[in-house]
């Protein structure tokens, strides 16, 4: 019997650390009236969804489909009434609800995200939605703190569910369904496509914004490029440097602990993979202006970015989300329209091509999630408790559902900078 199975449903584990998980252990304050209104709104939403919601008090709702079991309806409605989708995620962490097929249930919810809240309440979102705290602004100091909270958790943790390339972004498969054994090749295919877009080859001066654990830098250097890679994660930098050293490429790769705003020099090519999501809307102009400034005339920028629908981005950009609270503080996904608008208004970069491949991210996340589940005991041995493991499972399933529903997508962009010389 696993530790999860030994814990009665509907209650946080007795050993849940109240200092580590204060908002999971303690239910948020909410009036009886607000909770009652929330219950009515939740039931109304469920009645129109292809789900089956089974409440412990005997209530049933939904049109049929994936099952959600609400073990503690009072706590479930109280959290959602007080904190919206943040409360929905915390309720899962607190074991107040579950789903036999979590991804399937979340896919239905993601696909209907725009209709879950009635239109009149949507228009009053500024009055009831939680606001993002100023501490999560991605100023130079804030960005370092935000990045550290996720990427400095433990290199060993990420190594347990990523493949040997340690690539933490969407792979590019040849077909579906994908398998774990094909993931390393699919990650290399993604990297090689970005390097091809940027025309990286012998002698290319390449700037990488967001090192990860160094696989792209290693692959670019193996082509003969000279790579400068920037990261804010001390843990990632240490392991990336070691991997570069083991590959025998120290003379071609320099990895710096440096904010993108502090970058200097001129480069033939710039590559940035799923880093814009951590920049924050107020700094998108600075981000693209910096990339433009670092790129030599005639240079090429290859960018991989997760995107969301423009209307949903506008509706939620000031809202504090569960993902921001627990997984990616300060994060915000751009829309395709937002990227186009910012690059046109603030840079000399021109979009040459854009390719979407969201279904590949859904498969990548499935493989990560299954691997994380399979190695739960090893995650626990690293010191990550049951609440963390439920949180991480929810994060991976929540993200996979976003791509499966089409609510999220991932793009590879090629931008060029015009050379003013004839």
Protein model, in words:
Helix 13 (284-294) links the parallel strand 8 (267-273) and strand 9 (295-307). The chain folds into two domains: 3-128, no CATH class; 136-417, Vaccinia Virus protein VP39 (Rossmann fold, 3-Layer(aba) Sandwich). Helix content is 46%, strand content 15%. The model is unreliable at 1-10 (pLDDT under 50). The strands form two sheets. A seven-stranded mixed sheet has the order 7-6-5-8-9-11-10, with helices on both faces. Strands 2-1-3-4 form a four-stranded mixed sheet. It has 422 residues and is α/β, with parallel strands linked by helices. The protein starts with a helix and ends in a 5-residue tail after the last strand. The chain is built from 19 helices and eleven strands. The radius of gyration is 22 Å and the shape is globular. The chain has helices at 3-6, 22-25, 32-46, 73-93, 102-111, 119-123, 125-128, 140-151, 155-161, 183-197, 215-222, 234-246, 284-294, 310-316, 322-326, 336-346, 358-374, 376-381, 386-405, and strands at 52-55, 60-61, 67-70, 97-98, 205-209, 226-231, 253-257, 267-273, 295-307, 349-356, 409-417.
Write the layout of secondary structure elements.
Elements lengths: L2 H4 L15 H4 L6 H15 L5 E4 L4 E2 L5 E4 L2 H21 L3 E2 L3 H10 L7 H5 L1 H4 L11 H12 L3 H7 L21 H15 L7 E5 L5 H8 L3 E6 L2 H13 L6 E5 L9 E7 L10 H11 E13 L2 H7 L5 H5 L9 H11 L2 E8 L1 H17 L1 H6 L4 H20 L3 E9 L5
Parallel strand pairs: 1-3, 5-6, 5-8, 6-7, 8-9
Antiparallel strand pairs: 1-2, 3-4, 9-11, 10-11
Helix pairs in contact: 3-4, 4-19, 5-19, 10-11, 13-16, 17-19
